[in-house]
Amino acid sequence: MNAVTVKDVYENALLPHQLHAQLSEREGQLLTNEITALLSDSYCIDDTTLKFISPFYTLSDYKTLNLVRNSRGRCAYPLCDKFLNGGSVTAEFSGSMLGFCSGLHYDCNNYILNQLSDDPPIYLRERIHMVSRFDFANMRKQTYQVELFEDYLKKKATEYDMDTINIELDKFRMSY
């Protein structure tokens, strides 16, 4: 399957729900399941797509996405196009580094997990699914949108030298 774009998410998951501002509980879960299905055998084409889908995931739903990707033999990080060397990973190991192609993607994924919450559930996040089909380039940062670890590292790279970045990375790894 081709890489998933913002347009793919809009057309396959969001478009059917553009008629009202509040999702029902069933619609919220359906929307998340549609995005998970898109990413189960594919990956986000760019960081914009991953940021775009983040408001549609609770912590539990994102962990489910990781499990689904692992069960298909893919690195759990949705921005990664790589398959795992050993094939699929069982649920008991999916949260470990075994579910990822590299330590960096493990860290990237944990950085997202640390920003997500199960409260409020998707169906109570008013208007998150309302997107103009022509405004993808000018998407505003949404309340539930995550910052990517890659962006965090880029900011730190301009502030610090590499030794300091490695110290900060070690501190982050010790926090989980």
From TrEMBL:
Q: Which family does it belong to?
A: Belongs to the RPAP2 family.
InterPro entries documented for this protein = Rtr1/RPAP2_dom, Rtr1/RPAP2_sf
Coiled-coil features, chain-numbered ranges: none
Q: In which domain of life is the source organism classified? A: Eukaryota
For the RTR1-type domain, which residue ranges apply?
A: 52-126
Gene name per UniProt? KNAG0D01960
- What protein name applies here? RTR1-type domain-containing protein
